[in-house]
């Protein structure tokens, strides 16, 4: 990389997937321009051109070349701006980090969604499923400060943005994350003290209001 | 790694995900023991202990330490047995390979399943969706011999095992892969000439019979 690098994130403020990319860039000290997309209106030409298959944010543009999928983008950033590595160097540690990131990708947002984008029994099932996911994460974290061990690393970056949605899940699912996963709660508080996380994550109350708005326009309220 | 390496794959003969791991091991010349799991009967204690969350094959055991998820396993194998690299070294090429592997993971087996595990309109939709996926892959392959370019690499290993199921998709979906994606057809023939692929992939006719058996016991026929 050089000083002339042009780094752009096609972004949506509430997206935990976009937040991963922005936190990784903050951790690496890479200046970037975040272009907010209007996901409920017309998507930008640049988004459609850069991600024709999924048409989703985040898109990461490095000197105009697109990199897609948040976990892949964070890995790319870690390889290109290689000081303060986020991914473990050891093959086995790396495979374990990737497995946990994959578990988070498959489970956290979707079980969360089944709480906030539903009602009645479906929401009850969603809440139970989400609490199960929390328990797996609690076990994976164990007694460590971070998923990366002593240092905030790849899995932490993958996981922490979801926490901005937890208030919405708690209010709509009528439970407390802390009651089911006290270590995860402590890890969230610890991570929120980091400059990168503090700077990037949206206010959970604002996310909750966004979810309520979404429920209203979707006919769920 | 050392000569004393103990390499075990918890396997299922028809699984394209297990085949990825076995092809990677063949490409690297790593001796391995494949333990066939009875997925319709009782899963082994070793499987349940090694993959408590998903309880799925493949599980890769390297000196008794489990590595999970086929794409992660292939990356692990490539890092540990590092001669003849499968993954691109360049960050941008790597991100593109990972994106395509992710697309294949999300789309190929599931759209295929919506052909063979359905009937009527659902199957018609599944067939159309699968042909769309083929067209994306045809475009991604372009004029190259392999997804990896001149050499058979990571994306080829991720993709080729699915081809053993294509006969079943064709017969049940009433279409020909070749009619929609001639370059993919040629790539399959080319890849099947490789020793690793030839040795690992099951006979498509046997997979088709397996699918028919599955349809019968599931009440679909």
From TrEMBL, chains A, B:
According to its UniProt record, this protein's enzyme class is: transferase
Recorded catalytic reaction(s): these are: RX + glutathione = an S-substituted glutathione + a halide anion + H(+)
Q: What is its main location?
A: cytoplasm
Domain called GST C-terminal: residue spans: 90-210
Looking up Gene3D superfamilies in the UniProt record yields: 1.20.1050.10, Glutaredoxin (3.40.30.10)
Q: Does the keyword Transferase apply?
A: yes
Q: Domain of life here?
A: Eukaryota
Location of the GST N-terminal domain:
5-85
Q: What is its EC number?
A: 2.5.1.18
Any idea which UniProt keywords this protein has?
A: Cytoplasm, Transferase
Which Gene Ontology terms of cellular component type are present? cytoplasm; cytosol
Q: Which InterPro entries match?
A: Glutathione-S-Trfase_C-like, Glutathione-S-Trfase_C_sf, Glutathione_S-Trfase, Glutathione_S-Trfase_N, GST_C_Tau, Omega/Tau-like, Thioredoxin-like_sf
Q: Kindly state a single biological-process term from the GO annotations of this entry.
A: glutathione metabolic process
Molecular function in Gene Ontology: glutathione transferase activity
The UniProt function text for this chain reads: Is involved in the conjugation of reduced glutathione to a wide number of exogenous and endogenous hydrophobic electrophiles.
> What is this protein identified as?
Glutathione S-transferase
Annotated organism of origin = Medicago truncatula (Barrel medic)
């Amino acid at each position: 990389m050089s000083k002339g690098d042009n780094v752009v994130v096609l972004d949506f403020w509430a997206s935990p997937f976009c937040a991963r990319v922005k936190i990784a860039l903050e951790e690496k000290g890479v200046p970037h321009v975040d272009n907010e997309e209007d996901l409920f209106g017309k998507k930008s030409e640049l988004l459609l051109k850069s991600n024709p298959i999924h048409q989703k944010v985040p898109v990461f543009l490095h000197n105009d070349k697109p990199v897609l999928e948040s976990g892949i983008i964070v890995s790319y950033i870690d390889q290109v701006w290689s000081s303060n590595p986020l991914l473990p160097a050891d093959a086995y540690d790396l495979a374990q980090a990737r497995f946990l990131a994959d578990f988070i990708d498959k489970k956290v947002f979707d079980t969360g969604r089944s709480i906030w984008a539903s009602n009645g029994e479906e929401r009850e099932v969603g809440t139970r499923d989400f609490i199960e996911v929390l328990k797996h994460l609690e076990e994976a974290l164990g007694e460590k400060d971070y998923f990366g061990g002593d240092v905030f690393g790849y899995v932490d970056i993958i996981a922490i943005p979801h926490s901005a949605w937890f208030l919405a899940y708690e209010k709509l699912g009528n439970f407390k994350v802390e009651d089911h996963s006290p270590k995860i709660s402590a890890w969230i508080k610890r991570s929120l003290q980091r400059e990168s996380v503090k700077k990037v994550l949206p206010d959970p109350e604002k996310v909750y209001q966004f979810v309520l708005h979404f429920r209203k326009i979707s006919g769920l309220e």
